[in-house]
Amino acid sequence: MKENNPNRKQNFEKGFEVPENQPAKLHVIGAAIVTLGEAIVTIAALAELQELEEEQKLSSKQSHLLKEQSRQLDHMQKQIDLLTYQMSKMDRRKK
Questions:
Q1: Fewer CB within a 10 Å sphere, N or C end of the chain?
Q2: Which residue stretches, if any, does this entry annotate as coiled coil (predicted)?
């Protein structure tokens, strides 16, 4: 047998009532979630910026290394040219 308890009905209806401060609490929670999202976006942007800076540093280092290698090759070519010239002079003396 079901008993009709008026207090039970009132308690049930009260469970669906929205307290006056509930929208304010939801607003604060929503704002906190938005702030967290913005923080994540900021962290992602900083990580991307750091990655770009690292790529630029690497590119700069590679450019510097290429210039240094080119300078060394030029120096070696001058040495080869000098040795070739000296050998040529020696050959002329022998003749």
A1: N
A2: 49-86
Largest CA distance in the chain: 134
Instruction: Please report, for the chain, the start and end positions of each structural domain, with discontinuous segments joined by +.
Output: 22-94
Half-sphere exposure of 50 (CA within 13 A, CB side): 6
Q: Which of 22, 23, 5, 3 is nearest to 13 (CA)?
A: 5
Residue 19 phi/psi, 5-degree rounding, is -60, 155
pLDDT per position as a tens digit, 16-30: 665 678 889 999 999
Q: Where are the alpha helices (H) located in the chain, listed in sequence order? A: 6-15, 22-94
pTM of full prediction above 0.70: no
